[in-house]
Design goal:
three-stranded mixed sheet
C-alpha cells in the first residue's frame, strides 16, 4: 500500500507541473505577440538614398601640377558637413583608383569628418557668411601619403578647391589628423596653417 505522504508528494508534483506548463504557454504567447509587434513596426520599404546631384571635383595631376575641374553626378546628403565629407571622400577615391593622375592610397576612408564653422579673422563684406572648413583626415591616410612637397601640396589644394567649388561660402580650410593638429601631411605640406580657398583655383577642366 502506498504511504499517504507519497500520494501527497505525487499530487504536489502534478500540480506544479501543470502550473509550469501554464506559465510556459503564457510566456510563449507573449513572446509571439512581441515578435508580431516588432514585424509590424519594422520599415516596409528600403531607406531613402540621397538623390544624385551635379558636383564639381577638382583633381590634381602630377604630370603638370595642375588642378583640373571635373563634373560628377553624386548622391549627396543635405547636411552641409556630411555633404562636404562625401565630396572630399569621392575626390580621395579618384586618387586611389588604379589609373589615377595623382596616386594616393586610402580613398574615401581617409577623411573622417568635415566640420563647417564661421570663418576666422575680419569679416569679408563680399562674403559675410564666410565659413571655415575643418577637414579631419585619418592617421592611416596621412601615414600612407606619398612624401614630397609637390604631391602633398596638390592633395591639400585640391581638397580646398573642391570645397570652394561646391561651397562658395567656404573661404578657409584647416586640416587635422585623427582629430589633432599635425605639423605636416607627410613631411612637407604645412598643416598648421589656415589655407585660403581663393588660392586654390582650378587651372583647367576635363570630362568626368
Amino acid at each position: 500500500m502506498i504511504p499517504r505522504y507519497q500520494k501527497v508528494l505525487v499530487i504536489v508534483l502534478l500540480v506544479a507541473s501543470l502550473a509550469m506548463g501554464v506559465v510556459l504557454w503564457q510566456l510563449r504567447e507573449r513572446a509571439h505577440k512581441r515578435l508580431l509587434a516588432g514585424e509590424d513596426s519594422a520599415p516596409t520599404h528600403a531607406p531613402e538614398v540621397a538623390p544624385a546631384e551635379q558636383a564639381t571635383l577638382v583633381a590634381a595631376s602630377d604630370a603638370d601640377g595642375a588642378l583640373l575641374a571635373q563634373a560628377h553626378s553624386l548622391p549627396l546628403p543635405q547636411d552641409p558637413g556630411a555633404r562636404a565629407r562625401v565630396l572630399v571622400g569621392k575626390l580621395l577615391d579618384l586618387y586611389a583608383a588604379p589609373d589615377s593622375a595623382h596616386p594616393v592610397p586610402g580613398g574615401a576612408a581617409g577623411v573622417a569628418q568635415v566640420f563647417l564653422l564661421p570663418a576666422t579673422g575680419p569679416k569679408d563684406p563680399q562674403n559675410p557668411d564666410a565659413q571655415l572648413a575643418v577637414v579631419n583626415l585619418t592617421g592611416s591616410f596621412a601615414g600612407s601619403h606619398p612624401s614630397g612637397l609637390e604631391t602633398e601640396t596638390l592633395t591639400v589644394l585640391s581638397i580646398c578647391a573642391t570645397l570652394r567649388a561646391n561651397f562658395p561660402s567656404i573661404s578657409q580650410v584647416r586640416f587635422l589628423v585623427d582629430g589633432k593638429q599635425r605639423d605636416t601631411l607627410a613631411g612637407h605640406a604645412d598643416l598648421t596653417r589656415t589655407y585660403l580657398t581663393a588660392n586654390a583655383v582650378p587651372t583647367g577642366g576635363t570630362n568626368p
